[in-house]
Amino acid sequence: MLAAVLEDFNRLELKDVATPAPGEGEVVVLIRSCGFCATDYKAIKGIRRNVAFPFIPGHEPAGVVAAVGRGVRHFREGDEVICQPSGFCGFCRHCREGNTHYCQTAFTTGGDGPTEVWPGAFAEYMRTKESCLLHKPAGISFDAAALTEPLSGAWKGIIHYSQMQVGDDVVVIGVGGIGLLCLMVARAAGAGRLIAVDTSAHARGEALKLGATHVVDPSDGQAKQRVYEIMPEGPDLVVEAAGPIQAVRLMVDLRRRGTRWNIFGITTHETFELDGGVTHFLEGRMDASFGTTPLAMTRAIHLMERGTIAAERIISHRFPLRQIAEAVEIMGRPERNKVMINP
What we know:
Quinone Oxidoreductase, Chain A, domain 1; Rossmann fold; 2 domains; seven-stranded mixed sheet; 11 helices; 28% helix; 25% strand; globular
């Protein structure tokens, strides 16, 4: 099969590799669509270094079951499916409590987090466990289905963890692909004033199209002043969906008493400071959110299937697998939203 193999940082090569075969309890999926996540881009460009070569990226896939291994009971060849990238055992304490993304023997298909990494979905076929599959509703396109994992992360962070309430004033810092999904979840959940903060004029424009009531450019260092002009009493919830440490520092600066704040976007190991006394007396609540769970994936599917969120609207570019180099180039530009690979 054809696959995009990362041989070293900045060396993503199209190669003919062996088509995977399913083991017991496993399936092989013919990939129809796979979202290009910033996590993939960071691995390709060496921004994150926890990569073992060779590596096939791509952890947001949807496709068709091509082969099933012994013991597979709930899926058969020809089923249209959505793949959860984080695999789990189902039996450890964390899995029993519903936190499958904490699983002590977790693996990921083409992603980040666990130390065990299976080949991902920037390929014609991908092997995974049956427990990582969900049936794709007929009314959802493969491109939309490939957005289930990032949409599930947005739901998990904003609704399940930070417990956004109807009427909350919300600030989303960073409105690339994941930030736009956070914004759309907040809009659907009944946010009051909804501010998108981003240095990119393109991103701010897209945020307004997708439900932001206001946008702020933080480039001149006056973001806090502008947010408080729009929300004189300060935000109820701030979501950092950008990645750079400067976004986290801005999130900390925007707090007032009772503000909930979610460290969602940053994955690199950088530091920021908190004044202990101020943090104590503000009595806010910090959350963070990484990965996904079967519950979050199921909720994301429901949001799309019922027409609550049209996730496909965030897709700005589509590329066949053979044009993966062009997709990487587009990922490095500010004038894009979600990039989709269609093998």
